[in-house]
Input
Amino acid sequence: VQLQVFGGGLVQPGGSRRLACAASGSIFNFGTVGWYRQAPGKQRELIARITNGPRTDYADSVKGRFTISRDNAKNTVYLQMYMLKPDDTAVYYCNAGRWSDPATYNWGQGTLVTVSS
Output
């Protein structure tokens, strides 16, 4: 079982970026999928999650700027990021599990998003 993330890169402040989390099997079987990030010197934090419902939830730091969605046919969960700020600079990861803790699987490498002019 693997979840791989794609789409990181350098983005200017105010810009947008879409990340993808691709599952090795049916994403439907993964339950809740969560997007996490870890900024330099900080702990990894859960920033968005989505169920099969789909029910969604966001951390206050990204609410109104980021949108999580899932395409079960493509076994992929997306994180669309708008109005990016330098504080959004981090390595982004995805994982899956229960709503209360969607982090059942081994962490992959993540993808670095750098917001800078």
About this structure: The chain has no helices and ten strands. The longest strand covers residues 90-97. The CA atoms of residues 25 and 38 lie 26 Å apart.
